[in-house]
Amino acid sequence: MRASLLRNGKVLFGVIVLAFFVLLALLGPVLLSVLGLDARANDISAIAAPPSAAHPLGTTQFGQDVLAQVIEGARGSMFVGFLGAAIGTAIAIVVGVPAGYFGGTTGNLLNFLTNIFLVMPVLPLIFVVAGYLQGTGLVMIAIIIGVFGWAGGARTLRAQAMSVRNRDFVQAMRMLGEPHRRLIFVEVLPHLYGWIASMFLGGLIGAVMAEAGLAFLGVSDSSAISWGTMIQAAQQQSAVLRGLWWWFVPPGLCIALVGTAAALINFGVDELANPKLRAASRRVAKRTASVRRAAAALETTGAERA
Amino acid sequence: MTALGGAPTPTTTTALAEVSARRKPRRRSGVFLLKRLGFYLVAAWSAITLNFVIPRLMPGDPSAAIIDQLERVSGQALAPEALVSIRGLFGNPDQNLLEQYGGYLAQLARFDLGVSISNFPVPVADLVGAGLPWTLLLVGTTTVISFVLGTMLGVAVGWRAGSRFDSIMTPFITFVSSVPYFWIALLALWLFGFVFGWFPLSGGYDPNLPISLEPAFLLSVMQYGALPALTIVFSAFGGWMLGMRNMTVTTVREDYVLLAQAKGLSPARVRWRYAARNAMLPQFTGFAMALGGVVGGALLTEIVFSYPGIGYLLFSALQKRDYPVMQGVFLLVTLTVLLANLIADSLYVWLDPRVREES
């Protein structure tokens, strides 16, 4: 399974892009010192300057190098992404798996909780909470995003856990008197790793986007640099109305690339899990089309003859 | 309940459902809807309670801070009614929690959401009421357009999965749905508003015209709303398309579709009545669930375009730390989303007879 995963072009591309940004986040400070860039330094000789040799991606209103900010921002955004996704996934597992495994009152209660969080519009809720906590650090932002963003995942895990619970091997182990805790961790959970992994990827991009959205609203640590705070600063200094596109385009593109990478990996995994989707490859489609055409041609010639 | 599991042919299921619906028509769907109604009532109560709890969990004394701020803004001591209202919403140190909760609920029952700090002493309910029609107009129109557009394109693409159109559209949409809403909005504003100058740069209507139902004013509303609406549709229809594409790809291979084709039914009929109708069902669940997300997304879009709706109101409230407005907006958005979900659920019962069967 693992080998065929990487043979899938989509997955491979996604993994490479994601790995690139993870490395950028991890090695950002090293890279910046090698390049001799500083995300916070103000180059007064180049204020709001378009891309040039000295500043490959141009500078901001404050004469800060956009490239340096993008590299530094990768660290902030990816940090929130990973922490937020980890917290959200963990809660989804803690709520969703027992909800599916136990059923009954426990299951119903947990499911009810999940449904409530599912219908609540999470973004406004996060705004309000974050609004009270104005000026908090990226850790707090990640925690808020994780705590309010687990419901969809819990619902998926519940459905899957329900199906695994009813399989023979789990039933058999239960008959043997295995404790529930052991059954959940050793028998049920390993069958859900695939879903958990894809949930984590979804949570990652969700958290990166949520952080950007919050930063855009001004609810973030103003001293921290993330792709979101970059876009927010650009918006606040009316970069749009002054045509400083190089300020807000790169961070947005980075978010989009991370999101696309995560989505591609998930698509590839879906295709492996659901062969019906995989069969829809270009080659097969062409073949079917040509068969159809041939059949149609036969039919029309037949009709003409008749 | 899987959406596709065990449906022999759509005609059979519909026919069966019609028969059983004739036998026990309203009772079953009635029970189902009552259950859902109960759920949404509890959800609404949770949202209201959350709104009560959040400020009281925060460090410090929010109501003291708000009263302090209000008195600074207005330059005089607050009226006793205003004090009662704020303590009710944000915490009264002299009362125990249960008493506060009762007072809070009583206050909400009178539609009293407190008074705005930044627009003192305008009641929050008035501000929210002024913004709501704009948001409903923008979100309502764009949600329907993107749902219909995305679903229809999804059928078209999924029907011929692997075609050139599919192999271009699908990766493109994947990319578009990974881009944050507000960034697309910023980009569109820069490109079409600033560079080409086709659309106004901010606002919801021409400020030189009085707000009315005159054609000139309505025209300016459309002109100002076009770009925000286009950006929302652009970033939202892709999700619908992808979901519908994958469901259609799966449905197209079902036996009943093959049978319908073999019977010689017209391709359009097979495509829409047989494949699409069944592929639609999960789409519909998604529609209900996405409403929350769309409202959230529209909040950001409104901010980019300074559109005079709820999102912009929330934004200015956040910036000015206008907590009464913040909470009022949250409550209103939540209740709207819950109501929309309830309506979507009711429609679902009508669309998928199996829901009635199972409840």
UniProtKB/TrEMBL annotation, chain A:
Pfam families: BPD_transp_1
Location(s), subcellular: Cell membrane
GO molecular function, one term: dipeptide transmembrane transporter activity
Keywords attached to this entry: Cell membrane, Membrane, Transmembrane, Transmembrane helix, Transport
Keyword Translocase on entry: no
One GO term describing the cellular component: plasma membrane
Domain of life: Bacteria
Transmembrane segments: 12-35, 79-102, 109-132, 138-157, 192-217, 244-269
Its membrane topology: Multi-pass membrane protein
InterPro entries in alphabetical order: BP-dependent_transpt_permease, MetI-like, MetI-like_sf
Domain ABC transmembrane type-1: residue ranges: 78-266
Family as reported in the entry's similarity comment: Belongs to the binding-protein-dependent transport system permease family.
Family matches, as PANTHER family: D,D-DIPEPTIDE TRANSPORT SYSTEM PERMEASE PROTEIN DDPC-RELATED, OLIGOPEPTIDE TRANSPORT SYSTEM PERMEASE PROTEIN APPC
Full protein name: ABC transporter permease
Species name: Microbacterium oleivorans
TrEMBL record, chain B:
Compartments, record wording: Cell membrane; Membrane
TM region(s), chain numbering: 32-54, 134-159, 180-201, 221-243, 287-310, 330-351
Annotated GO CC locations: plasma membrane
Residues covered by region (Disordered): 1-21
Low complexity bias locations: 1-17
Family to which the UniProt record says this protein belongs: Belongs to the binding-protein-dependent transport system permease family.
Protein name: ABC transporter permease
